[in-house]
Model the fold of this input.
Amino acid sequence: MTSAIDPAEWERWRLILGDSAHQALGRSDSDYVRRQDAALDWLYGRDADTDGRGVRGQSGADGNDRSAGSEASRLTTFDWIDEITQLFPRETIERLEQDAVDRYEIHDVVTNPDVLARVTPNQALLRAVLRTKHLMNPKVLELARKIVADVVKDLVERMATEVRSAFSGSRSRRPSQFRQARNFDIRRTLRGNLSHYDPGTRRIAVEKAYFFTRSRRHLERWQVILVVDQSGSMVSSVIHSAVTAACLWGLPGVSTHLIAFDTNVIDLTADIVDPVETLMKVNLGGGTDIAKAMRYAETVIGDPRRCIVALITDFFEGGSPHDLVRTIKAMVEQGTSVLGLAALDDQANPAYDQGLAQRVANAGAFVGAMTPGHLAEFVAERVGR
Done:
């Protein structure tokens, strides 16, 4: 029965079952599989959840280690990065690197220059860089900046498409006397000639054809103010807010501002065209004073009726909830569109203080979760009115 298992299937089961696969499936390891097992054990063998379950890193009844054991323990982080690059496909490598940084907090993945030079730029590493850049010496920080730039470039390219597609309706159709086939207005022509419909032939005799011209609608300028919580739990929102602000910058009819806060407020609008520089200036962690940030945003507002303030936070307020609700209520009463966004990443998985969020909603703000694309659609709909 075991002979029916093809090599690829055997390798998958071997990695799932560990050394117990020898007895269950009746085959021996190849050197390639042992190396894969050692690389996985280096990372996941440190997981406390494996205790008592007879899996990687546990000793058998004879006292012998049933995992890759000594092979895994000899690996350095640099060796491990080198091994997984040779042993696994790109998608698996990115997942392993993400778990190393996010799950096991192996920070030398992003603070050791030799390791940093080998890793694959991805959003998990970007988050890790933002959390640990204060630990880096200038040489390592320069390498980290390159990772930030690579990931941000990819995000900008992807998000810019979403943002610009939301604004693609900024051209309007207007009647024209200039007759050109590509500007033929078929809907208006049909409506205007319905009285000439012949039931016998089931045709409409067109006595007058209509055409349109494509001209850019005049857009009154709107302000979009992004107010972003930079506490540690909001790192994904900070990243996507910086990139979204850069994508909104320069679009017709939009003036964009970017404000980050913890217990202090920093106006990042001057760096908005360079999201890499913006992110390198962000200091994650610390307390939270949302009310203070919103009071600052209030001073930036020009015309309240042509302003959107998007507050991106988990609503865990370290300042005064009363002041926050009062400030938002005053903004809304003046005509400002206030959004309270519990998440602004591409997964839109919100985790927030629902009690305070409800009070903010009761004050007149829209509270929910939006991806950057949805926020762009909201802005485009307001601007294009």
Observations:
- Residues 2-149 form one domain.
